[in-house]
Design a protein that fits this description.
Elements (H helix, E strand, L loop, with lengths): L1 H15 L1 H16 L6 H10 L1 H15 L7 H17 L4 H27 L3 H20 L22 H21 L24
Helix pairs in contact: 5-6, 5-7, 6-7
Length: 210
Amino acid sequence: MQQTMQQNQLLQFVKTNATLIALVVLSVGLAFADPTFHTARNLSNLARQVTIVGIIAVGMTMVILIAGIDLSVGSVVGVAAVVVTLLMQYGLAVWVAVPVALVVVGGVIGLWNGFWIAHYRIPPFIITLGMLTIARGVALTLSGGSSVPVADPSFAKIGGAYIPPMPTLVKSVTAPTVRPVAAPIAKPTGPPSNPIRLPNEVPSRVPIGP
């Protein structure tokens, strides 16, 4: 009976965490297949590549939990990116342009979609599908159908960092703690018991006689 309960608990755990288990198994398999997979540089590249999708997935999770759907998130990201670059071309600093674009673009489009869904009970699938096309057209019109250059060079630093290698990371974390503790231990407390005599050093007393 107890063995059956343990098996049921194990099966329930596997069902609940199937995605996480698959991710761990896949990561371990790739680490064995390619020694460079688990390096800090490669993990940084993977994290940077999935950043945009991961941020969007956080918001989409909230929407799906309430039985909704939003098909326009990709186009909204495109409009926000174009607006940020245009604001920087007009002279706004990056730390001002990014919040303004997030609030204006995300807020206005979110309120527009929410108004039709909540007030007129139109299915989210229909509204967000229409907004997908509208936002894509707005981005195309604002950009003129071409790439928009970034005027502020500091914008490239956002999300451009890398995870340091493990030895460097460990040293940077432990160094502030180890140094104050090791300093009193390494500090000499008195004259050395066995002084080292240099080859050219003349002794203070020279023995005379046999």
